[in-house]
Design brief:
The chain has 185 residues and is of the alpha+beta class. It has helices at 2-24, 75-85, 107-144, 150-183; strands at residues 41-44, 47-50, 55-61, 64-69, 91-93, 98-101. The protein folds into 2 domains: 2-26 and 106-183, Topoisomerase I, Chain A, domain 4; 34-101, Gyrase A, domain 2 (2-Layer Sandwich), CATH 3.30.1360.40. Helix content is 57%, strand content 15%. Strands 3-4-6-5 form a 4-stranded antiparallel β-sheet, covered by helices on one side. Helix 3 packs antiparallel against helix 4 (150-183).
Length: 185
C-alpha cells in the first residue's frame, strides 16, 4: 500500500517538472523558436486551431520565423491572431507568407524572461509540495485506520520528504541552467 503511494507521488512530481519544462518553451531566449507561437490560435472554420495545423511554421534563422499557410485565404486571419497574441514581433504579410522578425533581446527582456521562468519554477515547486501533502495525508489515513503502525507512518512520511527534496533540488538545477542560457548574450 505504501509503495503505491510512493510511486503515485513520484509520478505526479515528475509530471510537474515536465509541465514546467513545457512552459519554458513559450519563453523567449537568445535564439527564437517556433514554440513562441504555440499559444496563438486562429479560428479555422469555427474551431480554434494552432498555426502548425494550418501551415508550416519554420524558424529560418536566429531572429526570423516564417508562417506559410496551406490556404492563402487564411493570411489575414493568421496575421491578426499573431498580432493579438503579443509574441514580441509584428507580422509582415507579403501575400504568400507571413514573416516575423524578432529583434535581438535586450538585457531587460532577458531579465523579464528569467523572472517569468522563476515564476514557472515556483509553480512547479508548489505543485510538488501539494503532491507531498496528498501523499502524507494518505499515509496518515492508513495510520488512523490501523493499516500501518506509527513507526511505518513516520518512515513513510520521511521517504516522501526525501523524494520532495530530490525533486525540489532538480527544479533548482534546471532553473539555474535555464537562467544561464537566457542571460547568455
Amino acid at each position: 500500500m505504501l509503495n503505491e503511494i510512493y510511486n503515485s507521488c513520484e509520478t505526479k512530481m515528475t509530471s510537474s517538472i515536465e509541465h514546467m519544462q513545457r512552459d519554458f518553451k513559450t519563453l523567449r531566449t537568445g535564439k527564437v523558436t517556433t514554440s513562441v507561437l504555440d499559444n496563438v490560435k486562429i479560428d479555422y472554420y469555427g474551431t480554434p486551431t494552432s498555426l502548425d495545423q494550418v501551415g508550416s511554421v519554420i524558424a529560418v534563422d536566429a531572429t526570423t520565423i516564417v508562417v506559410n499557410p496551406w490556404e492563402k485565404n487564411l493570411l489575414p486571419t493568421i496575421e491578426s491572431a499573431i498580432s493579438a497574441g503579443n509574441v514580441g514581433a509584428s507580422p509582415n504579410n507579403d501575400g504568400d507568407l507571413i514573416k516575423l522578425y524578432f529583434p535581438a533581446m535586450t538585457v531587460e527582456q532577458r531579465k523579464e524572461s528569467v523572472k517569468q521562468m522563476k515564476g514557472m519554477g515556483e509553480n512547479a515547486k508548489v505543485s510538488i509540495r501539494n503532491d507531498r501533502k496528498n501523499a502524507n495525508d494518505q499515509i496518515k489515513k492508513l495510520e488512523k485506520d490501523k493499516e500501518v503502525t506509527q513507526d511505518e507512518s513516520k518512515s513513510a512520511q520521511d521517504a516522501v520528504q526525501k523524494t520532495t527534496d530530490k525533486f525540489t533540488t532538480k527544479i533548482e538545477t534546471i532553473l539555474k541552467d535555464k537562467e544561464a542560457e537566457i542571460l547568455k548574450v
